[in-house]
Each structure stands twice: as C-alpha cells, then as structure tokens.
Amino acid sequence: MDSYKMFNWGLLLLTFGLLIYLGYLSSKMMKKSDESGFLVAGRSLGAFVGAGTIVATGFSGWGFMGSPGVTYQFGAIEVLGNFFFAPAMVIAVLYFASFLQRKAADMGSNTIPEYIAQSHGGGTMGRVVQGVAGLITIILLLVFLTSQIKAVGLLGASWLGIELDQSATLMVGVIIIYTMLGGLAAVAWTDTVMVCGMALAAVIIIVQILTSVDLSEWETALNAADPELLNPTTGAHYGDHQGTVFLVLPYAFLFTAVLPFMAVRFLAFKPEVKLHKVGVYVAILGGLLSLIPLVGLYVRMQVPDLADPDNAMPVYLEQFMHPAIQGVITLFIIFAMKSTANSLLHTVASATSHDLRLALFKDGATSSRRALFINRGAVMVLGVVALLMMLYAPPFMLSWLGILGTGTLLASMIGPVFISTFWQGSAWGALVAMLVGFFTSGYMMLFADVGWLIGPLTGCAVSSACYVGVSLCTRRPQLVGTPAH
Hints:
By secondary structure, this protein is mainly α. The protein is built from 20 helices and no strands.
C-alpha cells in the first residue's frame, strides 16, 4: 500500500469515528423522547441543520457521480437540468414546509405514510392507506438505495484500492451503525457535516477546471466531438423536445416536497424555526453543488473514449487532481453519497418498523423501548438487503435507476401529500391515486421510450386526476345543516 492509499485510509477511519460519535450523541435524544426521537429527531432541527440535511440528501451521490456521468454522455443540457434543483428546493421550503410541519405536528405524524393515513381520516381505511404507502415506499426506495450503494462502492473501491463488494460493505456498515444509534437526528447531523465538505469540494473542483482550460478551446473540442453536447436539438434523456429540460423545475420541487425521505425533514423542524433562514442556506449550498456536472464536460474534452460514463468523476479525480487533494475531495464525495444512502435507509426502515407495524396490527402501539428496538433492527436488516441487491443487480446507469425509484414514488405520493394541501380528498382517493401512480410511472420508465421525466410526470398527472376523481365519487354526502370542514 503506497503512502497516499494509507493517507486515504486514515482520512476514512477518522471520519468514520466522527460519524459514529455523532450517532452516539444523537442517541441520547431518544432516551428523552418517545418514538418520534428516532423517526423525526424529536422535531428538533434548526435552520442550518435542516438546510444542510435537505441539500445533502437532494444532491449527494446523484449530484457527484450520476450527474457528471449523464453530462459526459448527453452534454450541457444536464448542467441546466441540475441547476433547477436549488431554486426548486428553496420554493419547497418557503411555500410548502410550513403547512406540512404544522399539520403533521397537530396530528402527531412521524412518517409521511402516517401523515397520509391521518390526514385522510384514520381508522381501518387509514391503516390500509398507511400500509400501502409504506409498502410502496419500501419497494421504490430500496431501488434508489441500490443505486446509491453502487455509487459509493465504486468510488470507495478506486480510492482505497479494494474491490467493489468490499468497499460497498464497508460504507454500508458504517451507515447502519450511526443510523441505528441516532435515527433521523444522526442522519441530519452527519448530513450537515457532510454538506460542508461537499460545498468545499465543489469550490475546489470548479477552481481547478476554470484555471486549467481555455474556454474557447473547451467549446471547440466539445463541438468537434459532438455538436449536440453544447447545442442540443432535442431534450436528450429528458424527452424529444428541447424544452422538456425545464420540466426539471416542477419535478425537483415535487421531489423535495413529496418524497418521504425528503419531506420527513419538514416534519422534523423545530416549531419556531425561521423558514426564510432555511431557504437562504439551501440557496447557497444548492447553488454551489449545481456546478458539479461541469466535470462531465471537462472529462469529455480530456478523455473522450470512456467506456462507462459513470466513471467520469473517478477518472477526473485520478487524472486531474494531486493525489492528496484527490483523497480529500473523494472523501467529501463519499460523504455526499452516504448522505442520501443514510436518509433512504432510515426512511425504508421507518416504513417497515413503524408504518407496516401500525397497518398490520390494530393495536400496533408499543412501548418506546420496544419500538426503538424494532426501528433499529429494521435499519440493520434492510441495510443488508440493499447491499445484497446492489451486489446481484444487473448493470444499470446510476441516474436512471435513481429516477425510476424516486420518480415512481413521486407519482404515487403526489395526490395524498401535495394535492391534499389545498384540496382534501378521501382515503379511497388516496389509495387509488397511489396505486395508479405506481403502475403508470413504473410502466413508462421500464417499457416506454419517452425520456426520464415524461414517465414520472405523466404518472403524477394521472395519479392527481385519480385522487380528485375517486375522492369526489367516494365522499360521504354531507348532512343538511352540518358545517363544512
């Protein structure tokens, strides 16, 4: 092992110790709280930690590994698409988080499936809705988690000089430990540390790129390689028309506001948190991380014959960074990918241990100590399941698999989570909307050649229509003289 590999191992072990220590500190919160300590951090997140965990989770492995690979393959249109995530997150924080936070706190909702069930009447039908929402969450986020584990495994393997399966096992093992210890609080605190490193990595990368290449030569080289890279005539992977890239803005807004592993952060804010401060922090951090896909264009100019576009970022670090700086930046990128992986694992475990338990058992409530044991056990079991899924999955492109999971989940949840904020439907409407969104988006992503966004957004439209239509048909007639709610 050379000196730089030893340096990388030292950095990794040091930060592993820090992450586990943060998990230990956050575990003390759960000794002073009920199950909400594990599920929503005891509703204790402040402005900076809340913003940090939102941005870290939203950009993460997709932003640092998937997006440069897509940019290498399809060109600057991905840079534009990536840019829309920061303003979309700010809009979600400023105009949606407050409503979700207040309503969930009033009902005592600790997960998004539980919020859906309680906001649609509860009771037996509410348990069915919660169970279906939890099951859909588990299936689709395990798909997304598989892509995140592969991303962190690939980068860690080249960085540490070990095999993919060894790297992925090491990374997932540490995520399991600190997530088991501290639940969402541990996830949020570690995310905040990670996102600071991610922002620093973004600054270093952009400075290196802009100081090492002449912009006119860069443009000439890319146009010579493929004119579509800088002047696309279609929307490439987003759809046939150039304008389809602008659909990323509403998609990214709904991504932040609706997806359970993102929206649960709104449930975890302190009641008195100033959301405009959260928005400012999100804008700054998100703006910096939006520049990362430029790596794909840089590598396309320098190394035009990559066999696998997803290797754009590892190749960039290996060939264009000093080994010591490469080690530090790679650590920050591993942070980025772990920040989403831990959020996905926590959400999947919560859906299993909390939502399915309450849905399957009428008297599913249990002591705080036993509930915490079940929550932690679910983290361990599902972490191992996701690792095995990654090891035995067929080849796939990281970003496509991520959108398959998140886009289909978005189509499932848009009605009962988002539409219900301004038009309250029925439990039957929520149930049908989730199932229709799941099958519509899933079918279009897997079997229809319509681009990466058209499938999920079509699923959103059909699901929303079903939510409204079925709710109108299944609402109970209002008695004369009964006040409207």
